[in-house]
């Protein structure tokens, strides 16, 4: 399965003018220097073999579903921020044009950690709101529609880059999460890493809103009167066309459940 963005565009961070970022669709956003540049601590955004002994390892929960989880628990703050993102994922996605107009919204940090066996979290560090939206738009299958017409967005990738075995996670329009086994796992994680790595320097050098600030601004601009159902319906229809085109590219006819993936009610 192919995706619609080109490798040369995704990875072309060096082409960013000073004080700006260029989005995948070609938009150029002004950025605001951070009051204090954050330390990168050796993070360059690329994929590396994990040598720390803290890589994601295959574990089973009480239901027998294989999950890949980091050995260290996230602080409570990150869990609160994760929940805030998941409860508002569709609302935020519907505001993609507004988010794509402000670098501080685009670079808003999202506290969700994906990872792979053998390489751990390398390449997945510090994703942002804009990175998630660009990935949803450009990765065939990241926006899902099941047989009953229920929509969901993949938000966490967790699995083996070699076997493709994975227990990833998606969130539906009501903020409920579920574990999903993504068919063709190789078509998901490399693009996420490429888009995430594209903005590595920007994350450390420029100002970014926190998620609550983004939601507050959007809420004030909406004045509580924003019905985003039509926007979501349109975006999912466009994505379904993308997905079907990708299936045609590799000579597969049709698809019964967006990706034919297996699902489980327990999300990572």
Task: Set out the fold topology.
Layout: H1 7-10, E1 20-22, E2 28-30, E3 57-60, E4 66-69, H2 76-87, H3 89-94, H4 96-99, H5 103-106, E5 115-116, H6 129-138, E6 143-145, E7 151-156, E8 158-159, E9 168-172, E10 177-181, H7 189-198, H8 200-205, H9 211-222, H10 229-249, E11 262-264
Parallel strand pairs: 5-8
Antiparallel strand pairs: 1-2, 3-4, 6-7, 7-9, 9-10, 10-11
Question: Which percent band covers the strand fraction?
Answer: 5-15%
Number of strands: 11
Name the poorly predicted regions. 51-55, 57-74, 252-260
Q: What kind of sheet is the major sheet? A: 5 strands, antiparallel
Q: State the end-to-end CA separation.
A: 25 Å
Strands side by side in the biggest sheet = 6-7-9-10-11
Question: Main attributes?
Answer:
268 residues; alpha+beta; five-stranded antiparallel sheet; two-stranded antiparallel ribbon; 10 helices; globular
Task: Note down, in words, how this protein is organized.
The chain is of the alpha+beta class and 268 residues long. The protein has ten helices and eleven strands. It has helices at residues 7-10, 76-87, 89-94, 96-99, 103-106, 129-138, 189-198, 200-205, 211-222, 229-249; strands at residues 20-22, 28-30, 57-60, 66-69, 115-116, 143-145, 151-156, 158-159, 168-172, 177-181, 262-264. Strands 6-7-9-10-11 form a five-stranded antiparallel β-sheet. α6 crosses α7 (189-198). The longest helix has 21 residues, at 229-249. The two termini are 25 Å apart. Residues 51-55, 57-74 and 252-260 have low confidence and may be disordered.
